Structures
1.
Amino acid sequence: QVTLKESGPVLVKPTETLTLTCTVSGFSLSNARMGVSWIRQPPGKALEWLAHIFSNDEKSYSTSLKSRLTISKDTSKSQVVLTMTNMDPVDTATYYCARIRYDISLDYWGQGTLVTVSS
Amino acid sequence: QSALTQPASVSGSPGQSITISCTGTSSDVGGYNYVSWYQQHPGKAPKLMIYEVSNRPSGVSNRFSGSKSGNTASLTISGLQAEDEADYYCSSYTSSSKMVFGGGTKLTVL
């Protein structure tokens, strides 16, 4: 049974760095042609892709957020970590991690974690 | 990368069919067969409904179908049911090895 679970702070202050962890089970981060993606959704708004990392350590970032994002994985811990620097209130959103396949579809999703940026 | 273009809302009566469009460019939708569709009910995580333009994951009703013509992909839901009322998002692989979502479509079952 494949599951993903996001963890991290629910509240961050403007200018701080957000660190989110996605812990996976039911599959390995070393599985060929699979990886983990991060997606966010501001309240009442659309999904926005942020970044993904594949088993071969191939990484890709949203063009508009590239300078602020870092994605990494620890295969032994079954965890993928996303950091986002210089947080702003407009970054308030539910952050999801999801398993990404070779066909760039997201077949399993975490429940999401709401992160609020406020002083 | 710019978001793919979807209609903000569509509606239909139970039993009818509806189609949601997703328009991109030759650098995303038109250039690859890596278009997916997701269903999202309020307060829930999205669910994969279609991958690789027209393939359904195991467990997804065959009332859901996908297609593509040029730079526009489409999701068709036939035999509309009340439970289909949700937000729907398309996504595509892009030429810069990235991913892009559509702006989402709210489906109302009348």
2.
Amino acid sequence: DTAVSQTPKYLVTQMGNDKSIKCEQNLGHDTMYWYKQDSKKFLKIMFSYNNKELIINETVPNRFSPKSPDKAHLNLHINSLELGDSAVYFCASSRKRGGAETQYFGPGTRLLVL
Amino acid sequence: AQSVTQLGSHVSVSEGALVLLRCNYSSSVPPYLFWYVQYPNQGLQLLLKYTSAATLVKGINGFEAEFKKSETSFHLTKPSAHMSDAAEYFCAVGGEGAGGTSYGKLTFGQGTILTVHP
């Protein structure tokens, strides 16, 4: 049973397109996150939701829009894709919000923008 | 603001040798510290975490880390490396300050790639 799942696993698309990545967790957690891992493997948080409420919104271009239809799902929609958006995007979840909480990561979505 | 520095982007050891991966943190409040491992083309898996209980923390796969406040360090060690330990390792600090914008976010170090030679 996959705890945190993401679809698709790979995404290859052209500049200017709009795409979505979906994330689901079956752990019953309240808090979910999106992280971006760049080509140098550096991981940086983008967004976090707690009980469907946006709680962390880092300095991310507004072409990126997260949506949480319910506690178990956090999707990421990206408009007008740019070359620099090529990266691995990880979804994660934790039992609740807090610095001591363990975050459980999905397998990642590898996005390549051509 | 909290930050993490991992010294050494690549560490190479022989199978059976000691593994030491270094992590130093910066935090204005007592930190929560994590080590995650990432195998090729996979997500991150928690190895261990420090949450202000015992300063020596034991994790999975024989890894352990010691929190040293005086040195602001949280180095990861394993007495005897195995080929299956080859992966990238990330140290992270958990954001504190309930209600603040950093509350609950993980700030990661740059990662250390561990290579294990036969």
3.
Amino acid sequence: IAGITQAPTSQILAAGRRMTLRCTQDMRHNAMYWYRQDLGLGLRLIHYSNTAGTTGKGEVPDGYSVSRANTDDFPLTLASAVPSQTSVYFCASRTGQGGYEQFFGPGTRLTVL
Amino acid sequence: AQSVAQPEDQVNVAEGNPLTVKCTYSVSGNPYLFWYVQYPNRGLQFLLKYITGDNLVKGSYGFEAEFNKSQTSFHLKKPSALVSDSALYFCAVRDDNSGYSTLTFGKGTMLLVSP
């Protein structure tokens, strides 16, 4: 593994179903983030984690939950998917020490029908 | 909250010509500014950042950006565009909120470089 990986690459999901998007990083970064990207809206922060064991809400957290059991993994769960959650989801991380640039995974394209 | 604006949805330029992708910012305090590029079906790639120091920042792939405090701008530039530069470009600003520090992104500018 090099950098950030996300799985699955894409998924079609029936409304009402539960879905977990996976994110793993091997850079030992403290901070991790989940964004959704929608046409004309740019990237919007869903949830974040400053360090393992802590999480917080971003700009658009409703309908999503996260956990951070260890440094490397930061899964995003949709408890009961709705069509408005159709989007491309990106996981990102940063060291937590200066710089502030974030490094992004390749994304998961999710379609909720 | 901090914010950035990218006034152009799309920029068209011919290969070999200079390119500029515009970004203006609104911050309280000193701005930390970033540019990212996104190629089709890919994640965002970090290009460059301004934290402090020289107003002209050099980054990856021959790109540079000019920080202008009086105009609150951070435009991305390249002296000679390549067709392979065609992509979606995002400007971002560091945003310190209650409990966390993240980036706030502009809506993006599509750069199309024609042969």
4.
Amino acid sequence: EVQLVESGGGVVQPGGSLRLSCAASGFTFITYTMNWVRQAPGKGLEWVSCISSSSTIYYADSVKGRFTISRDNAKNSLYLQMNSLRDEDTAVYYCARGGITSGSPGGYWGQGTLVTVSS
Amino acid sequence: DVVMTQSPPSLPVTLGQAASISCRSSQSLVHSDGNTYLNWFHQRPGQSPRRLFYKVSARDSGVPDRFSGSGSGTEFTLKISRVEAEDVGVYYCMQGSHWPPYTFGQGTKLEIK
């Protein structure tokens, strides 16, 4: 059974940093693109970043230069290092697996971890 | 970036009645490989999104056949033939043909009248 479990969320002041983790199990992690998608309170879904099986990386413009995605295939884990956090980064952050033919967020999502940026 | 526009924003439906959600893209979603990467997701209150369809009309495992996905180019539709109580929540379309970024529609909230 595919499982994605996020952790690392919490309350942080504007300008602060946080590192999110996503522990994956039930599939061959190394072969899949992985994504981070966020959802601000009461709002819609926003794609944040993805990292391919070969570690090619892309970011949304809203986080470029502040967030860093990475993966550790030996630990079956995905990470999101978030620096220079802003109020508008407050959201539930989901990790989502890509598919075989498309790396876009697909059929498997974690339960999410809440990041609150507030002074 | 490709803009995805859904309508209506809110959809009150009587149990057992049909429902339809429209999703339009700002440019054709036909990829250079010939596929159209348009997904539909359903998010129940307090839950993670669940994918219903990929590549317009390919149904994910466990999705009831009262749901159907259709469309081409820039116009796509999600239909529910007979709405049940478990169908409440927000429905999102998402394009994966022209990325980055992957872009979502703003959502359609389905509620029972």
